[in-house]
Amino acid sequence: MATVRVRFAPSPTGLLHVGNARTALYNWLFARHHGGKFILRIEDTDVDRSEERHEAQLMEDLRWMGMDWDEGPGVFGPHAPYRQSERTGIYREHTEQLLTEGKAYRCFCTQEELEAERKQAMAEHRPQVYSGRCRALSAEAQLRRAASGEAFAVRLRIPDHPLRFHDLVRGDVEFPQETVSDPIIVRSSGVRSSGMPVYNYVVTVDDALMEITHVIRGDDHISNTPKQVAIYEAFGWPVPEFAHLSTILGSDRERLSKRHGATSIASFREMGILPEALVNYLALLGWGAEGGTREQFSLAELVEAFKLERVTASPAVFDFEKLHWMNRHYLKECDRERLAELAWPYFEQRNWLSPQHIADERAQAWFDTLLAIFTPSVDLLDQLPGKAWFVFDFDPLHARDEEENAPLLASESAQKVLAAFAGKVRAHAGPVDAAQFKAWMNEVKAETGVKGKELFHPVRIALTGSHSGPEFDKLIPLFEEGSRLALPVHVLSVRERVEKFLAE
In what order do the strands lie in the sheet with 171-175? Predict the structure, then answer.
């Protein structure tokens, strides 16, 4: 087998979304599995919409997901340049070759004439394809009309035979030549020379010159493929293998879009999805390892297991709950130091932590304890502040007014429990530890005769604002140690919480 060469060729016109990210991932996995080359090519010929910031973002997203490239922007390669905007001379040269060899021709049809043709074809229930009225123009006539200043496009002569290609996902595919007609490969510029080359043309020229052996992309490109096959044939280039990946759908089985929720890689990063979770999940959207039961793979394991033969043609449904489940798994496995580094900014954004505390060993140890308590109950890192809010921003008034708390606090048993507990706290000098707290609760139980939920819920509300949450033996040390740290927001100790709650 010749060296595998694949490419990912995004347009820098917006954020990288899950469909393109999965395409990039499958290309990368295929290349790495076969010891081949993965090329990144930027298709930036849409000058009005292409932006450098989008290009920078998509490259950052690819690196975040663990994908590198062997050739492309920032990486030396023999087929440079890797931005289409820098390859216009190459396209112009190849267009001249096709015109000289009679495999392409200048089309002088105006937009009005083409629209009239289309409407007539519709009225006669015929395919809406170009009639070929300029096909018979001699080379001399073409040159003469172009020299006179008449605007023209360049069309490819489609050969008189069906256009066939092999799809590794769908098998052999064939398009009758009459359904393709003679496609425009260079748009009319309205001046003496032709204008901008079209997508199907430049992508084929680039793939051929970059020696791409396998074109792995979304199934929305299937209708483009016969035109590209015709361009390969016109130049006498070998046609690569194709693999058209199924569409990714939302829960309603419509094409995945923003209305289903976040779909950009940048959005998932902001939410606190770990790259290994997203990569693992994306790999399973249309592919499964042999055996079909395993769901958790490291990137290295995906490289080892990935085969295009295991890619399905059926649409894949993007399940946000499944992604969150996957992320939960990887959060639990995440290294302590890395988890703290990833989670810290979410608390810093709330002004609960500050950059200088990252270097404070006591603050780091305390934050590790906080993460150990709250991370098991979240799907995403950005949910952590919402789970731990009462550690930093305890609000007794809100706690008292909470719909589920108010009737509980109004009961006679709750009043007795809180009075007894407050007495223990006020009589104690110094910090409180988990053992001391447990002893107090046993004493309050004996003194009041209250037990179970009626005993613990009022105290929990007084300390956290809610009647449910993490175990007290974890929270008490967190409150006490946090109160001794000089954080941007003072963490209340057990004593301070009780006094503040009773005062309000």
Answer: 171-175, 163-167, 241-245, 214-218
CA–CA separation, 290 and 498 (whole Å): 58
At 194, the pLDDT band (50, 70, 90 cuts) reads low
The side-by-side arrangement of strands in the sheet containing 184-186 is 104-107, 153-156, 184-186
Q: Alpha-carbon distance 419 to 255, whole Å?
A: 59
User: Among 117-131, 138-152, 374-388, 418-432, whose mean pLDDT is lowest?
Assistant: 117-131
Output the CA–CA distances (angstroms, integers) from residue 113 to 109, 116, 118, 130, 452, in the order listed: 6, 5, 9, 10, 85
Long-range contacts of 364-371 (CB under 8 A, 24+ apart): 364/340, 366/478, 366/481, 366/482, 366/485, 367/340, 367/343, 368/336, 368/340, 369/474, 369/477, 369/478, 369/481, 370/478, 370/482, 371/336, 371/339, 371/340, 371/343
DSSP 412-430: HHHHHHHHHHHHHHHH--S
Residue 42 CA to residue 9 CA, distance in Å, equals 5
Q: Is the pTM of this model over 0.85?
A: yes
Average pLDDT over residues 273-285: 97
* Residue 269 token pair: 């990063």
CB contact at 8 A, 82 and 42: yes
* Residue 192: per-residue pLDDT: 44
Average pLDDT score over residue span 362-380: 96
Cα separations in angstroms, 452 against 109, 158, 402, 425: 86, 82, 21, 20
The count of other CB atoms within 10 Å of the CB of residue 499 is 16
Q: Which of 103, 227, 258, 416 is catalytic?
A: 258
Give the integer Cα–Cα distance in Å for 193 and 210.
27
- Within the chain, how many helices (H) and strands (E) appear? 21, 11
For 392, phi then psi, to 5°, come to -100, -30
Contacts of 257 (CB under 8 A, 6+ apart): 250, 263
Three-state SS string across 102-164, please?
Answer: CCEEEECCCHHHHHHHHHHHHHCCCCCCCCCCCCCCCHHHHHHHHHCCCCCEEEECCCCCCEE
Question: Distance between alpha carbon 401 and the CA centroid of its chain, in Å?
Answer: 40
Single-letter residue type at 448: T
Instruction: Let me know: does 25 contact 283? Beta carbons within 8 Å.
Output: yes
Q: State which amino acid sits at residue 238.
A: P
| Reduced DSSP (H G I as helix, E B as strand, rest coil) percent helix, strand, coil of the chain, to 5 | 50, 10, 35
CB within 8 Å of 180: residues ≥ 6 apart: 129, 158, 163, 226, 227, 230
Compute CA 281 distance to the chain's CA centroid, rounded to the nearest angstrom. Answer: 11
d(CA 311, CA 101) in angstroms, rounded, equals 40
- The reply to whether 258 belongs to the active site is yes
Q: Please report the sign of the dihedral spanned by the C-alpha atoms of residue 171, residue 174, residue 180, residue 184.
A: positive
